[in-house]
Amino acid sequence: MWISSFLAILLQVSLSAQEPTQTSPTKRNYSEVKPPNIILLIGDGMGLSQMSSALFYGEQSPNYERFPVVGLSKTSSSSHKITDSAAGATAFSAGTKTYNGAIGMGADSTAVPTLLEDLAQQNWRTGLIATSSITHATPASFYAHVKLRKQEFEIAEQLLTAPVHFFAGGGIRYFSNRLDERNLLQEAEAYRLRIDTNALHPRKWNSKDRYGYLLAKGGMPRMLDGRGDFLTAATQMAFSYFDNFGQDPFFLMVEGSQVDWGGHANDGEYLTTEMLDFDQAIGAALDYAEKDGNTLVIVTADHECGGFALVSEEIDVPFQGSRRDYDSLRFSFTSGGHSATMVPVLAYGPGAEKFSGIYENTAIYAKIKAILAEH
Ligand code: MG
Ligand code: ZN
């Protein structure tokens, strides 16, 4: 798509150069015709209360306050009023409403092409980062096509040949120690996929190679258990990878996977520490986009989780019963599962204004496509 607009501009420049009144040809630099890089940050299970927790439990203003455009996304799947993360992520990755459990599959259980796959075919660089296993529903929906999210061993096989150039997360157990005795970590070499299972060691990036970091057997550790700055560091490492091939636009998905798990566990401390960590990654993405000037950053969630709220404490007052103390906060959960509430969408960068309003989750895919069609 952008090649045609590039040609159109070339044509324009050469036409205007023929005009006698024009003293100097219009200057266009490459970045003006290059499509914007896309960074999609997904806070799994991140509703408005989850986001709000960062206002009260963080040490500084949340990075998400830096976004100029806000919208709301309606999250129901094709099969249920309340979505799961597989249908929720497939809505973003392929623009299709599908049934709960589906990974890169439409409602009729046939594979649907994903944005990541389409862009890779147009010579974009692609990356996926998650604090779950890299084969978990959210990241998997961008590169795999299976009927059920629990098919993580099959999803791992599909990652070997998927056009994902950079990834980081957990999930070693789906690559080695498999029931079928295949060792995908070894097989990966044949696909020029270099997987590091020790740490986020920087490398000398080779344009023909793909790079993976698998740093936990299953999901990455919780923040409460010492995960540290993995999510932000991996995000910055992805930028260093992409910058190495500066003329290629990139698509990067970064997931704060465990905001959701804190919700399922009805554990406010778990939830807020994951939320604050995700906000750090949001900050790194915005810092990059501000410097780059041609990067679209979108933050959203697949659904809310836990029916979470920040509510007031009830205080006993002697001889008077009790009263609500509106200056004290307590975590409250109304469910151990997801909820049907709308979730926020934040956007910054070229085309960001399109994300204002209230729309279906699938519209996020359509809006990205529409922005790219203009380039
Ligand atoms: Mg997820
Ligand atoms: Zn969940």
What does this entry look like structurally?
The protein is α/β, with parallel strands linked by helices and 375 residues long. It has a single domain (34-305, 340-373), classed as Alkaline Phosphatase, subunit A. 33% of the residues lie in helices and 22% in strands. It is built from 12 helices and 14 strands. The chain has helices at 2-18, 30-33, 48-57, 85-94, 115-121, 137-140, 152-161, 184-187, 230-243, 259-264, 268-292, 362-373, and strands spanning 37-43, 69-74, 125-133, 166-170, 193-196, 210-214, 250-256, 295-300, 304-305, 309-317, 321-332, 338-339, 343-348, 357-360. A 10-stranded mixed sheet has the order 5-6-4-3-7-1-8-13-2-14, sandwiched between helices. Helix 4 runs parallel beside helix 12 and helix 9 (230-243) packs parallel to helix 11 (268-292). The model is unreliable at 1-31 (pLDDT under 50). Zinc ion binds at residues 45, 85, 260, 264, 305, 338.
